[in-house]
Structures are given as C-alpha cells and as structure tokens.
Amino acid sequence: MATIELLLIICLTVVSSVPAARGTSEVDALNAFRQSLTDPDKVLENWDPNLVSPCTWFHVTCNEDDRVTRVDLGNSNLSGHLVPELGKLEHLQYLELYKNNIQGTIPTELGNLKSLISLDLYNNNISGKIPPSLGNLKSLVFLRLNDNRLNGPIPRVLTGISSLKVVDVSNNNLCGTIPTSGSFEHIPSNNFENNPRLEGPELQGLATYDTNCS
Amino acid sequence: MTTTILQLSHLILSFTILVASLNHPGLVDATPDDDSYWLLRIKSEFIDPLGALDTWLQETSMCTWNGITCGDDKKHIISLNLSNSGLNGAISQHFSKLTFLETLDLSLNSLSGPIPPDIGNLGNLKELRLFSNSINGTVPPQIALLRQLEVLRIGDNLLTGEALQNIGALSELRVLGLAYCNFNGSIPKEIGNLKKLMFLDLQQNSFDGEIPEEISGCSELRSFAASNNRFERRIPTTIGLLSSLQILNLANNSLSGAIPPELSHLSNLKYLNLQGNKLGGEIPVELNGLDQLEILDLSRNNLSGNISLLNSNLKNLEVLALSENLFTTIPPNLCLKNSNLHHLFLADNNISGGFPEHILNCSSLHQLDLSGNSISGALPPSLDSLQSLTDLLLNNNSFTGEIPPQIGNMTNLNSLFLFGNMITGGIPLEIGKLQQLTTLYLYDNQMSGPIPRQLTNCSSLADLDFFGNRFSGSIPPTIGKLKNLVNLLLRQNELSGNIPSSLGYCRKLQRLVLADNMLSGSIPPTFGFLSELFLITLYNNSLSGPIPESLHHLKNLSIVNFSHNRLSGSIAPFSGSNSLTKLDLTNNSFSESIPTTLSTNLIRLRLAHNSLTGGIPLHFSQLKQLQLLDLSFNNLTGELDTDLSSLTSLEHFLLSNNRLSGPIPTWLGRITELGELDLSSNSFTANIPPEIGNCSKLLKLSLRSNMLSGPIPPEIGNLYLLNVLNLQRNNLSGGIPPTIQQCRKLYELRLSENSLSGPIPLEIGTLGELQVVLDLSFNQLSDKIPSSLGNLMKLERLNLSSNKLEGEIPPSLGKLSSLHRLNLSNNHLRGQLLSNFAGFPSNSFLNNDGLCGPPLISCSELSLKARKRLPESQIVGIIVAIVFTSTLICLSLMYTMARIWWNWRKVAISCSEKGGFEQKKEGEDWVYGEEIAKSSDHHFWNSNSMALVPSQSKQVSDSDTARIFQFKWSSAAAKK
Question: What are the boundaries of the signal sequence (chain B) (predicted)?
C-alpha cells in the first residue's frame, strides 16, 4: 500500500534551532514592536532587522552613541499593540505613537524607560490600566494618554515624578479621584475631563480615594 | 511541376483523412459498445508529452495498450493505470463510459480541471486514485454512487468543498486519502459506517468541528492522520476503541481538554502525535500502557504537572517530544539503563532546579534538548555518561559554573549548544578531543580566558559562535587548521593582538565576525584566499594599516563592516567584488579618492568620517540598488555635477561636512524615495531648487550652514511628511512661505540665522506637531507675533529672538503648556508680560522696546520713571546740558553697545537657542534631544524649568549684566 499521502510529520525541532542573526537588543526590541503592528502605509518598510543598529531606520532617531532616543510614529495609520520589548530602549526620550489605532494595554515594562521625557500615546484605542510602573519614569515631562479607552485609577505614584509638567488623560474611562498633590498640583482640570467615572479632585486627608475603582 | 502539385494534393488528402479519422468516430472500426472507441476519445483529450499513450492505436488491440487490463470479453477494460505518465489536460468525461472499470489510477500526473460528475456511472469501480495532480473544483456528490469503492485517494490536489458529506455511503472503503487539499467541513457521524476502513488521511486541509465519537465504528482503522486542520474541542474517548490503530496523528489542530486516558487501550499504537494543540492537564499515567509506542510527540500544548511517563513500561519508545509545554520537573525514573530512547526533547518548558542528573541514565540518547528552561547550577561532570549523544542542546537556561573537562569524552558530539546561559570560566582544553564536533555555540555567556589552541584540533568544526563573552588574549595562531570552518563569530569579546594570518587558510569561511573586540595590527593579506567569504565584520577594533590589495580577489564578498578602526590608505581593494551589497568604513582614516568603480549591487555605502578627497565618481550613477549613501565628514570637493537621479531607491543621501560647492542640483527632485537629505556644512551656493519639493517622501531635510541665498521655495510645502527642516545659517531672504503649513508632521523647524523678512506667517500656528524647536531667530522678521503660535501645544522650545518683531506678545503664547525654553529677546516688543511668563528667566525677554512685568521690572516702576517731571525753571538749562551731554552719552553708549553686541554675538554662537543653553558642536544638530541625554543629571528639567534661572546664565554673567544695563537704558529711552 503506497502511503505518499500518509507522510507522517515528525517534528524533530532539534536541527532547526539555528540561531537567528543577532543585532543589538534595540534592533530586536523595535523589530518585536514592528511584528505586532499592521502598517498599511508601509512607514516601517525600511526597518531591516538584519542591521546592527536601527539608527538608519526611518522614524527612529539615535544619539551619537547609536542609541535610540526618539521613535516618531505619530499619525501613521498603525494598528496593533505595544510590546514589552519597548522597555529595553533605555535611552529613549520620546515615544511618539499618538493618533494611530493601537490597541491592547500599556506594557508594565515601559516603566523601565528611565530616560523617557515624552510618552505620547494620545488618540489611540488603548485599554486597560495605566501601569503604576510608569511612576519609575523619573525623567518624564510629558504624559499624554488622552483619547483612549483606559480604565482604572490614576496611579498615585505618578504624582511623585517631579519633572512631570504635562499630564493629559482626558477622554478615557478612568475612575477614582483626580490627584492633586506633587506634580499634579498644576495640571489643569480639563486634562482630566470626559472620564465619566473619574470624580473631582481628591480631598487631602480624607478617606481612600479609590472606592469603587480598581 | 504537375507531379509536385499532385504529390501535394495527395498529401493534403491523406492529412485530411487522418484528421477526420481522429475526429469522426464514424470512420473508425470501433463502435461506442467497445471501450477502445472511448479510450481513443479520451486519448485525444489528454496532452501526452512523454508519449505514454503512443501504443493506443486504433489498428492494435486495445488489450495490448499501455496501462490497460481487459476483461474476459476483450471489448471492455477493467483496469486503467496511467500513474506517473506525465499527462496534462483535463479528465475526460468519457471515462464514465468505461462502465466495466474496477480500477482507475491517474495519480502523479499534471491533470487539471474538475473530477467529471459522470464518474458516478462507474458502478463497478473499486479503486479510484487521482492523487498528486492539479485537479480543482469540488468532489462531485455522484462519488457516493460508487458503492463498490474500496480505495479512494484524491489528495494532493487543488480540490475544495466538503468532501466528507456523503462518505458514509461508501461502506466498502478500506483506504480514504484526502490529504493536502483545501477541503473543509466536518467529519460526519456516518464515518462510523465505514467498518472496513483501515487508512484515513485528512492531513493538511481546513476540516473543522469535533472529531465524532462515531469514529470508533471504523474498527479496522490502522492509521488515522488528521494533522494540520482546524479540529477543535476534545479528543473523543472512543478513539480508545480502535484497537488496530498503529498511527494516530492529530497534530496542529485546536484540540483542547485533557488527553483521554482511554488512548492507553490502543495496544498496537506505534506513533502518537498530538503536538500543536491546546491540550491541557497532565499526561495520563495510563499512557505507560502503550508498550508498542515508538514515537510520542506532545510538544506545543499546555500540558503541565509531572511527566509520568516511565521508560520501564514504554520499552520501545525512541522519540519523546514534550517541548513547549508547562512541565516543571523531569521524573527521576524516566530512563532505564537499557532503554531505546534516542531523542528526548523537553525544550521551552518551566523546568527549574539543577541539572536533572537522572537523565544521565538515558545512555541510549542521541539527541537531548533541554533548551529554554530555567535550569540552573553547573553542568555535571558525569555528563559524559551520555556516550552516544550527538546533539546536546542546553541553551537558554540559567546554567552557571564552568564547562566540565569531561565534555572531551563525549566523542560522538556533533552539536553543542550552550548559548544564553551564565556559564563562566574558560573553554576546557579537553574540547580538542571532539573530532566530530561541527557546531559549538557558546554565545551569550560570561566565559573568559583565552580561546585554547586545542580547540583548533576539532577538525570537523564548521560553526563557531562565541559572541558576547569575555574571551581575551589572541585568536589562536593555529586557527588555520580548522579547514572546515564556515562561520566564525567572535563578536563582542575582549580579544586582543593581531588577527592571525593563518585564518586565511580556513578557505571554506563564509562569515567572519570579529567586531567589537580590541584587535590591533593590520588585516592579514592571506584573507585574499578566503574566496567563499560572504560577510566580514571587524568594526570597533583598533586595526590599522591599509586594506590588503589581495582582498580584491574576494569575488563573493557581500557584506563588509570595518567601521570604527584606524585603517588607512585607499579603499580601492573593495572594488574587486561585484557581489558587494553593504560596505561600511565609517570612522577610519581612509584617504585618497573614492574608487571609480564599486559594486553595482551596493545597497548601503557608508564612508563617513574619513579623509576621502576628490568628488563623487561618475560611476555612482550606476549604483542603482543604493538605498543609503553616507559620505559625510570627509574632504570631498567640487560640485555635485554627477547626475545621481538614476539611484531611484536612494533613501538616505548624506553629504554633510565636506567642502562641496556649487548649486544644489535640481536632479535631487527626481530621487523620489529620498527620506533623508543632509547637505549641511558645505559651501553650496545659489537658490534652493524648487524641485526639492518633488521629494515627497522626505522626512529630514538639512541644508544648514551653507551659503544658500534667495527665497525659501514655496514648493517646500509639498514635503508633507517632513519631520525635520533645518535651513539655519544661510543667506536666505524673502518671507517664510505660508505653504509651510502643509508640512503637518514637522516636529523640528529651524530657519534661524538667515535674512528672512516680512511677518511670521500665521499658518505656522497650524503645525500642531512642532515639538523639539521652532527657531526663527536672527532674521529680519517684522510685525506682530501671530497669536496662532499659541496653538503649538507640544512645542518645547521657541526662539524668535533677534528679529524686528513688534507689538505685544500675544496672550495665547502663555498657554503653551509644553514650552520650557523661550527667547523673544532683541526685538521691538512692548507691553506687560502675562503672569504665565513670570517663570521664564529675564533674558528670555531682554532688549525689547517696552516689556515690563515679572521677570522684568514691574510696569508701575516703568511708568513711574516715565512720569517724573523736572521744575520748569530748570528746563532751559537742562536742555542745554542735555544737548551737550547727550552727544557724549550717545557716543559712549554706542561704544558700549558695540562691545555688548560682540559679547552677545559670541554667546549667541555658543548657545543653540540663545536663551542660554548649551550648543553642541557643529554637525551634531542632526541628533535630537541629545542635550537632555548628555545631562546625566536627572533633575535637568527641574533645574532648568520655567521657574528657575538656567545654570548656563552664570557662565554668561558678563553679558548678563551688560544686558540688564541695556534694558535700563532702553526703558530710559522710552521716557521720551
């Protein structure tokens, strides 16, 4: 009985595990992000993962040591989600991903971006909570998360980022109360508006602020 | 002549008869009662390039024809076998006339078109084999009429649709082969009617739904293969009733639930493959009853818990594949001393703890894969008890300690993967005993010490990767003994000394990666022997001297990166290989001119930061694959007179910091893929060509520090993707074109240090993505600051200083919540500063006509000064005094002004924004945000934010006091 059709697939993975070409971890990190994205306008077309550094990739800017400082993909018709690997870009200062159709949650690992100055994720479709790990972003000045579908409370640790100057979380589904201490002291109230479950500025010294909000 | 015509007409006549005899059966002896009649029609419909049907001739007996078996009456055929005959064309519908057929085999041809529905007329058919063709369409329902059918094999075609709908009618089926098509639908319950079915193959289709319990009706089933479909839900427990089953392959579906313990009843099972499903739970301990089992593959599921399989029961097991599950431990009694287990794959599980030493009992193992777990501790010295091992994969774990010297006893070892661990220490000298070793991957560990000379005794070595360790010392001079070496990757270690010239004798080398070390000396000329060499990277070393001439011989060289060394001389040897696609020689000391010929296959050419001279060779217009050309920071001279518009793929064109001159060529406008154009710091003259507006994909454009004149062409507005525009430090004149509003993605705009005049177009206020800086300083811009600038909500730096701007500062500017640098000094602005501006340092506003309020002096003080009156009696005397002294004062003021101006100018040149912050050295402006990166002080933003005076102002205190004086003087002047 001929059994051409009855070929059995034995998966001997051992021989196939040839190591892939290794770039720097920054190439890997950005490439992982690219893999998660749909890019109809082909703005990521020249992101060649075989290069040693991503510094000649369009929309990526490096410092003189060839470390990534900016990722400028605002308004680029991208969909997909953020990836934890982005947290490896330890010299990243500007993460500009606004006005796209990015979904999913903000990875906790973005809290590792210790050089980050600006996190612009506004006008996307991001859901889930604002990770408290963002409180580790000790260089952060601009945090624009408005016009997404974020829920949960505004993590109090953010008030401890002394460099923080602009916070905009309007048009989300956040709950709890609006922090008023620390760096949130001078954030205008309209940067919190259109969060139906977010209650007016918290009153210092009163009961816990996050009732019915988790 | 007449004979020729006669002959010709005779020929035509006979040809006509021949054709007629083929097309008109009336002329043929055979009648439709006779199968030969239909076979000849069938023949005429086949395309038969190999002549498989050449014996099918009318004048011979059908029963002698190729592939045919006649029935007893000699008028009908009972079997037709044209398998593997090279036939093309469609399956003739005339097959349906061969009603005596019992066997039809057209497999392994190139037949196309559908299966003719009339095939249902072949009521005697027992075997139908159409597999491995290009038959398309659906399976005709008439197939169900073939009640005698025992073998139906139609797989490996382009068939679609629901093939199994009526299958229950074919109760005589023994073999059903439908693999490698595009069938869909589910398996009907009626499958259980096929009591005689022995082989069922549904692999590689789009079948879905549940595998029905009724499958147990197929009690004769020996092989059930349904891998690579979309079957879902549970594996029916009734499969356990298929007691004849030897092969069960349900791999790569979406089956879920637990593995049914009932499978243990399959006492004849030799092969069980459930990999690539969503099976969970533990492996049922009952599976130990499968004592015939040879291959068990449960990899890529969600199985967890203990591995309960025991080799004491599974005596025949040769392959056990459990990779990519959630197993945490390996059972201590997995192997017996006399086991047959050859292949054990446990990669990518959650196994932790130390090396599972009981695995060392599995002495029959040939391949062991424990990669991708969390196993820690040292490798056991007794590892060498696995004497038969050919492949040992322990990569991507947490192993520490050193490689035991006993590794040298594992003389059958072929591949040793230890990468991605935390192994320390050196390479044991005993490794030299591994004569079979072809692959040694030690990369991503913390190993140190020298690379031992003994390693070069491993004469089979083909792949060596030590990337990312701390190996030191020199590369062994005996490396040339490794004649089979194909890949040598030693990147990112601490290797020093010279590159041994014997490396040139590893003539099979294809990839040589020595980058990121401390190698010195020169590149050995023996490299010229490496004729297979495809990739060589030596970047970030301290290599010096010239590129050996012999490299000219390396015709296969494709990727070269020698950047960041001290290499010198000519780069001409690289013109030898026309395979070259990527050449990076950045940051060396290469001199002389760029070779006149370079590989026309070049995709990336980077020669920046050298001392290359001359111009861009004419030949460059032939480098049509080029995507990146970086010649910046050299000593290139001359004009850009070589037309490079043929480089239609060019994305990066970087020529900054050379001595290029002449006009910016108009052909640049034809390189439409251009994303980055940097011509800064050259001596380009004349106008910016309007054609630049055709480069509609440009993201970054820098023409700064040239001698460009004339207006900014309004076509700049066509660059609608532009992120960065830098025209700083030229002699540009005219107005800022309002078309700039079309560059909606600009985040950095620098037009400073030109002679631009007219008002700031209010359209700039629509550039809502402006973020890094808007710098219009040191121009002749006049009129009021447009209040639309208040819309630039992301702008962080605004510099409008040293223009002729007048009127009040629009209140909208106070709403720029992101702004942290502001410089409006040296204009003609007046009026009271809004409270929002109080946080900026005073030098943001200095030297205007009449600004007041914090941080400047209060407006009341200013008006008080303005209202002071002197007694009328003294007026005449004072007028005289004023006439006399004002001349004196004016003269001295003018002198002071001139001095201040020069001081100010000096400061301005050393201050990027003139607001008092650091300027980078020229050429670094193309790197963004670096000043923040440079500031290791995390409080940079704090200490320099609006509320505080920048630290920089201390350094320029001289001119600060001068400016305060200036301010007072100008407010005094306002008295008049």
Answer: 1-30
Position B898 scores a pLDDT of 56
Residue type, B786: P
pTM, full prediction: 0.75
- Reading the block at residue B738, the tokens are 């309002």
Tokens (6 digits) for B641? 């007179």
SS3 B145: helix
Using CB atoms, pick whichever of A4, A13, A118 lies closest to residue B323: A13
A69 and B132 within 8 Å at the Cβ level: the answer is no
How far is residue B118 from each of residues B4, B158, B159, measured CA to CA in Å? 50, 20, 17
Cα–Cα distances (Å) from A19 to A15, B396, B417, B488, B701, in that order, read: 11, 11, 10, 14, 39
Give the confidence band of A22 by pLDDT, cuts at 50, 70, 90: very low
Strands (E) across B591-644 are located at 604-606, 628-630, 637-639
Give residues with Cβ within 8 angstroms of A110, minimum separation 6.
Answer: A82, A86, A87, A95, A116, A119, A131, A133, A134, A137
Share of chain A above pLDDT 70, in %: 83
- Residue B138 CA to residue B160 CA, distance in Å, equals 5
Which residues does chain B have within 8 Å of residue A94's beta carbon, measured at their own beta carbons?
A: 771, 928-929
Q: N- to C-terminal Cα distance for chain A? A: 65
Please choose, from the candidates B396, B462, B470, the residue with its C-alpha nearest in 3D space to the C-alpha of residue B434: B462
Distance CA A157, CA A184 (A): 11
**Residue reference for tokens 């410092």:** A63
| Structure token digits, residue B960 | 């600060």
Does residue B816 carry a pLDDT above 50?
yes
Contact A19 B443 (CB under 8 A): yes
Alpha carbon distance B486, B450 (integer Å): 21
Nearest chain B CA: its distance from A151 CA (Å): 25
Q: What are phi and psi of A212, to 5 degrees?
A: 55, 30
Q: Number of CB pairs < 8 Å for A and B?
A: 153
Q: Looking at residue B12, what is its pLDDT?
A: 44
Give the pLDDT score at B894: 58
Contact across the interface for B441 and A141, Cβ inside 8 Å: no
Q: Which two tokens stand for residue B851?
A: 């600004």
Identity at B496, one-letter amino acid code: S
Gap between the Cα atoms of B959 and B336, Å rounded = 88
Q: Which of B166, B222, B50 is nearest to A3 (CA)?
A: B222
C-alpha to C-alpha distance for A65 and A60, rounded to whole angstroms: 14
What pLDDT, in 10s, does the model give residues B901-934? Answer: 554 444 333 333 333 333 333 332 222 233 333 3
A65-103 pLDDT, tens digit per residue, is: 889 999 999 999 999 999 999 999 999 999 999 999 999
Phi-psi region of B750 (alpha: psi -120 to 50; beta: other; left: phi over 0): beta
> Nearest residue of A to residue B174 by CA position?
A1
d(CA B877, CA B881): 6
Which chain A residues are within 8 Å of B131, Cβ to Cβ?
4-5
B714 CB contacts (<8 Å, ≥6 apart)? B690, B737, B738, B739
* Of residues B543, B549, B322, the one with CA closest to residue A13: B322
Q: Do A91 and B275 touch (CB under 8 A)?
A: no
Q: Distance (Å, rounded) from C-alpha B79 to C-alpha B73? A: 14
How far does A116 lie from chain B, in Å, by closest CA?
10
Of B131, B319, B938, the CB nearest to A10: B319
DSSP of B397-462: SEE-SPPPGGGGG-TT--EEE--SS---S---GGGGG-TT--EEE--SS--EEE--GGGGG-TT--
**Nearest by Cα to B331 from B318, B315, B346, B342:** B346
